[in-house]
Structure formats: C-alpha cells, structure tokens
Amino acid sequence: MAISIQIDRVSREYGPVKALDDVTLDIRAGEFFTLLGSSGCGKSSLLKLIGGFDRQTSGRVAFDGKDVGNLPANRRPVNTVFQSLALFPHMSVAQNVGYGLRLRGLSGSTLETRISGALDLVELSGFGQRDVNLLSGGQRQRVALARALVMEPGILLLDEPLTGLDERLRQQMRDEFGRLHKRTGATFILVTHNQDEALSLSDRMAVMHRGRIEQVDAPARFFEAPANAFVARFVGIDTLLRPERIVATGNHAEATIAGQTLPVRVEGPADLAASVVAIRPDRLFLAPQGMPPALTLMVVGTTFRGLHRDLKLAFSDGQTLVIAIEADADIGQLSAGQQVSVGLKPDAAVLISSAGLPPA
Amino acid sequence: MTGPRLPTSSVLMTPPLLAILAFGLAPLTIVVVWSFWSWDPLTYWIKPDLSLAGYAAILEAGRWTVIVSTLVKALGTALLCLLIAYPTAYAVHFLAGRRLSIILLALITIPFFTSYLIRSFSWRLVLGRTGVLNTWLQDWGITHAPLEWLLFSNFAVVVGLVASYLPFATFPLLLSMRRVDPTFLAAAQDLGAGFWKSLTSILLPLTMSGIFAGFLFVFVMVVGSSTEVQMLGGAGASIVSVMINDVMRVANYPLAFAISTIVLVVIFGLVLIGNRIFGLASLFEDQSQ
C-alpha cells in the first residue's frame, strides 16, 4: 500500500550548518516524487529523515498523517536503494534479496517463491546463487532494487541510484524505475542531481537549494513558471533579463528591455527591483523578412550543442539572450555584430522573481 | 656488460627476503632440528645424534600439563580480550566522534609505554591483601576479610594477561571494522534488522578476519609470556616460557626446543585453520575492490 508523507516545518542542523531549513512538503501516496538539487542542497538529509536514519532538529515527519519521529528505520514501512547499493558482500544474490524477509520470519518455499518473484521482477531470474561481488554494475543495481522491492514497501527511497552507471545503463535503469513504479504502486522518492532523470520520471519534483525547497511542481511547470531566477537557471533557462520598465494590467504585462518592449506572462512580482524576465530559448525564432519583428538584436556568436545550435544575441545595453536554432541552419549570413530580427512564440517570456540572482 | 640485467623489483626484494631468512626462518629451522638431537645430562653436552629424548622428556615431570595449561590460559585470555575489545572497537569506530575516538585510542595505547614488568607489578597493588580492591570491598561491607584468591592465583594471572594484551585484540578489530562500509549496517536496519540482528548477521561476519587476527595475536603473546605468571601467579605457577627458561639453565636445548616445536606446531596449525575458515589474509587486502 502506498503511503503519503507529510514533512512539516522540518529543520536539521549540524552545529551552525542548516542542512534543512524549515522545509514543508507533502508527498502524495503512490506518487513518483523527485528531490532535485546540486550536492549539499539538503536533498539527501531529507531522504535520511524519511528513511529514519537521522532525526530532525525541529519539525515533524509523518506517514499517512501519523508522526513517525520515534519510529527507528528498521520499523518504518520504507525501503531504500542506497547510492553505494550496500549489497552485503558475504551473501549471495538470493541471500541479499531474502535478508529482510527472513527477518520477518519467512522461510522455506514461501521465502524461495518471494525471492525468485523479486528477481523475475528485475529481470535477474536464475541469478539467486551468484556471488554479488562478481555482478556487473547494472546487475548489482537490480539486486539492490529487488532487495528493497521484495519487502513491498509503502515508500521506496532511491538515493542517487544511477550515479555510478554509464549513460546507456543509466537510461535503461531509469526506464526500469518507471516500470517498477507502475507495477508496485508504491510511493517512490528519488534523490538526484540529474535533471533528465527527474524530468522523465517524476509526477512532481522539488528543486532544493541551501536546505530550502525553491519550488514543488509537476516537471513541465518548472519551465512554464519557474518560481524564481535560481530555479530558472537550474532547469536550463539561462536567459534572465532585467527590465527597465514593467507595465502590468492583470495577468498581462509588457516589459521594456533596453528600449524594446515585449509581452510577458506574470508569474511573480511585477516589480522592477524584484523581477526578471525569463526567456525560453525554444520559444524564440529568427523572424523572416517582412514579418514585424518583436525584437531587434545584435549577433554575438553561435555555439554548437549537438542536436541544436545556440545563437547568442545582445541588447543594446549589453544584456544577452540565447536562441536555440537548428544545428544545420544556414548561419552564413549571421556574423558577429550584425542586427537580426527575433520573433517570440506565445509564452516565450515570463516575469519571475529575481531571487537567487546576484544583485545588479 | 654481460649477463642479463636484474630487474629492479628483484633487487629491491632481496634485502627483505634475506632479512626474513636470517631472522625468521634460520632460527626456526635450528630450533626444530636441534629438538631432535640428544643431550647428555652428565656433560650437559648436545650431540647431533637423532633422538626423540627431548619429546619423551616433555611427558616427564608434568611438563605436558604446563603446555596444556598454557594453551588453556592463552585460549581463555584471547577470548576474554575479544569480548572486551569488540565493544571497545565498535565504540571507537562507530559511536565516538573524531576527537573522542582519538582520545579513546590514546587511552588504550598509552599504558603500553611502560614495561610489562611495571604493569604486572602494579596489579599486585590492586589485587593484594591490602590492595585497592580488597580495601574497597571491605570498606563497602561486601567482604569482611581480604579475598586471598585475588593475587598469586590463576585469576590474577589472567587479569594481568588480559590487561597486557588487550590492544593486540583491539587494533585488528578496529582495522577490520574500518573496512566495513557503514551503509551495510544502514541497509540491514532499512530491511528491518535491529541492533543485535545487524551485529550478528552483518558486522560479525564481515569482521571475522579481524576477530581471528585479534585472537591469534593475543594467543601467541600469552603463549610467549612469562612476566605475568612470575609476578602474579601462585607458588609453582608455570607457563611455557618459564618452563623453557628452567630447562635452558641446564643447557638441555633438545628439550627446550622440543617444547618450542610443539608450541610452534600448535600455533601454525591455528594460523592455517584460521586462514582457511576466516580468510585472515583478507584483513590486509587492498580496500578498493
């Protein structure tokens, strides 16, 4: 049975260092939830509190509404796939997978059936008698998953489980997580610094920074309405422009940047000091001849990015923005210093809080 | 230049190999070979005639009982040391912070800066008739007369031996615990194991090599010890080293070496069995897999 988690005003302090700073978060039962952030942001500290491996300095952690503060890790309906996997080196694959069940008193054919069922689930049928030290990285990963899933936990914690794997295996295991989440229906909580993993797997995700949660939303919302400049940067919206004038009427507004006015959607304070205009590189295009241009900008240069090419353009006040153009686009006529016309697709520009951006 | 050049590695290997041969293997060989020579009690002279007289003499004058009691003392002391050292190593490695663990390690090590003689003697002041322990026991009304068996007894000897050789069990255990990823214990807990279960199913099996190494070190040290028995043992208390010393006084080298050979065989047997079962060598393997 999937379990919901309530994190209420939780802080975790190590001396003067606040690993978690007044975090409040609700994770729904059966959800695939991701804690995303760079190292040291507090995501692993939060995971430890949910797993029961650490205690918060203040605040409350509850499962299905019931406080679990006094419940040690071994009595929580939670199982973990550790970053280092922590497969017991002195046990075979089957002994590893069956460890928790044996503690629950299972034995004989019931135990065997459950173990082989779990191994089937992670596509390691027949690997029971193998030595865990002799498995490949992907196989070890699957054993760790099977060991946790065989317990039928209400909550499965995944602590950066894909970090050590190569790219192909990483994608394979990522798909595996998605499949197993649907199969088991448990609440999955993934901790990662990898945006791709978070975006492709999560129902919702939280971006964390310095022990605080910056935004909790469905993955798409992070691009439509990033909570602030830090989040926008974190998800790859690098173009953040400081407007010199904002004229707002309800939800519609126009911002003026270096003398040029463009429509913006308001998703934060409409205030010159506390706002920036975030522009999505995929919602801009080079305007063809004859079309009224939204912006006229000067070419700075291009960068080859594989599947696309970044075209960097500058306003007259020196602020720059980036457009994603086709990698094989004819850019012969785009030489540095040249003026080009740029068109905006709907929702290209969003007015958001400038929090997280160094003061100008 | 003529002839093949010696690779650098074999040049570097030569001195330590020679040292091992000269200081380790050669004396051992002499001990074993001389134990089969014969000794003339009239002239105190040894002759290179093959003889089992040395081994036969072990069966005389209750010498074999000394060997057996030495092995029993060694076994008991080693087990007691492990019993005390395991929680100690656990506390130092898993429970104490960096500072506290350094302080604890220092407390374990510092007594070893004084000689065995002084340390053994100091137990007389603790265990004697008017010693610290007997005084306290009477002051608190637990006993009404001094306990006689505290000193000059097997009890005193074992206390002295444990106190002397405890670190030889503690350090191998610490070494083996350092090799255990603490996440293994977290994983066991995550899967439902309480403290005792994770101790018996994860930590103990993973520190077996350290347990055996600690056992072996203490065992060997006790078999070779003499000070504790001489300082703390009762009248007529003996131990292999003391007995060998007595035999050497009359220059009966074959007998002394026969006793030594027996002890050597027992210890070598232990090492081989231990290595087979507990993988002693793994304690010194590279940590990275």
Automatic annotation (TrEMBL), chain A:
<keyword id="KW-0547">Nucleotide-binding</keyword>
<keyword id="KW-0813">Transport</keyword>
<comment type="similarity">
    <text>Belongs to the ABC transporter superfamily.</text>
</comment>
<protein>
    <submittedName>
        <fullName>ABC-type Fe3+/spermidine/putrescine transport system ATPase subunit</fullName>
    </submittedName>
</protein>
<dbReference type="InterPro" id="IPR003439">
    <property type="entry name" value="ABC_transporter-like_ATP-bd"/>
</dbReference>
<feature type="domain" description="ABC transporter">
    <location>
        <begin position="5"/>
        <end position="235"/>
    </location>
</feature>
<dbReference type="InterPro" id="IPR027417">
    <property type="entry name" value="P-loop_NTPase"/>
</dbReference>
<dbReference type="Pfam" id="PF00005">
    <property type="entry name" value="ABC_tran"/>
</dbReference>
<dbReference type="InterPro" id="IPR008995">
    <property type="entry name" value="Mo/tungstate-bd_C_term_dom"/>
</dbReference>
<dbReference type="InterPro" id="IPR003593">
    <property type="entry name" value="AAA+_ATPase"/>
</dbReference>
<keyword id="KW-0067">ATP-binding</keyword>
<dbReference type="InterPro" id="IPR050093">
    <property type="entry name" value="ABC_SmlMolc_Importer"/>
</dbReference>
<dbReference type="InterPro" id="IPR013611">
    <property type="entry name" value="Transp-assoc_OB_typ2"/>
</dbReference>
<dbReference type="Pfam" id="PF08402">
    <property type="entry name" value="TOBE_2"/>
</dbReference>
<dbReference type="InterPro" id="IPR017871">
    <property type="entry name" value="ABC_transporter-like_CS"/>
</dbReference>
From TrEMBL, chain B:
<feature type="transmembrane region" description="Helical">
    <location>
        <begin position="149"/>
        <end position="175"/>
    </location>
</feature>
<keyword id="KW-0472">Membrane</keyword>
<feature type="transmembrane region" description="Helical">
    <location>
        <begin position="100"/>
        <end position="118"/>
    </location>
</feature>
<dbReference type="InterPro" id="IPR035906">
    <property type="entry name" value="MetI-like_sf"/>
</dbReference>
<keyword id="KW-0812">Transmembrane</keyword>
<keyword id="KW-0813">Transport</keyword>
<dbReference type="InterPro" id="IPR000515">
    <property type="entry name" value="MetI-like"/>
</dbReference>
<feature type="transmembrane region" description="Helical">
    <location>
        <begin position="64"/>
        <end position="88"/>
    </location>
</feature>
<keyword id="KW-1133">Transmembrane helix</keyword>
<dbReference type="Pfam" id="PF00528">
    <property type="entry name" value="BPD_transp_1"/>
</dbReference>
<comment type="similarity">
    <text>Belongs to the binding-protein-dependent transport system permease family. CysTW subfamily.</text>
</comment>
<protein>
    <submittedName>
        <fullName>ABC-type spermidine/putrescine transport system permease subunit I</fullName>
    </submittedName>
</protein>
<feature type="transmembrane region" description="Helical">
    <location>
        <begin position="202"/>
        <end position="223"/>
    </location>
</feature>
<keyword id="KW-1003">Cell membrane</keyword>
<feature type="transmembrane region" description="Helical">
    <location>
        <begin position="12"/>
        <end position="37"/>
    </location>
</feature>
<feature type="transmembrane region" description="Helical">
    <location>
        <begin position="255"/>
        <end position="278"/>
    </location>
</feature>
<feature type="domain" description="ABC transmembrane type-1">
    <location>
        <begin position="67"/>
        <end position="274"/>
    </location>
</feature>
